[in-house]
Amino acid sequence: MKSLRILLLGAFILFAANAVSAQSWGIRAGANISDVNGSGFDTSSKTGLYVGVYREIPLVKSLLFIQPEVQYSQEGFATDNFKDTKIDYLTVPILAKIYAVKLLSFETGPQFGFVVSDNVDYTDVNTFVPSWAFGTSLNLPLGLSINARYITGLNDTFDGPSGKNQVIQVGAAFQF
To answer: In sequence order, what DSSP letters do the residues of the chain get, joined into one string?
Structure first.
């Protein structure tokens, strides 16, 4: 009985070690081009930045991964009616990532945005903004990748006026 326990414990440790080593950490950063669409808004896009960390967790080896992330994202828009609007978020995307080939991958999934700060004084900003993200990456050697992502808000950005975030992210990532 003791030998069986040791054998099972050894198998568990081996399995856990392989699972952990198959997971990859990375950092990503780049530019946001953001705007808000909705009734009553005549806006133009504003450029900000994003920076964050992610983890790639394999579901189907070399094909399908779950990629949770945490990132800081500067978003906003410009309008003639008010001063330029800036809203900073802590975003948590949880993406399904599929590798079409080793060089090219596609990702999609929900993103949860939590307002960190804003300069809006004409209405209330919703402190939680769920979104949906679609993206692609060109995966280069040495863990470097170039990525692009489109993120669309699922709920209104503001408590009063109707308008949803629209963000295009272009940047780079490095995977350890």
So the answer is: -HHHHHHHHHHHHHHHHHHHHH-EEEEEEEEEEEEEESTT--EEEEEEEEEEEEEEEEEETTTEEEEEEEEEEEEEEEESSSSPEEEEEEEEEEEEEEEEETTEEEEEEEEEEEEEEE---SSPBPSEEEEEEEEEEEE-GGGEEEEEEEEEESS-SBSSS--EEEEEEEEEEEE-
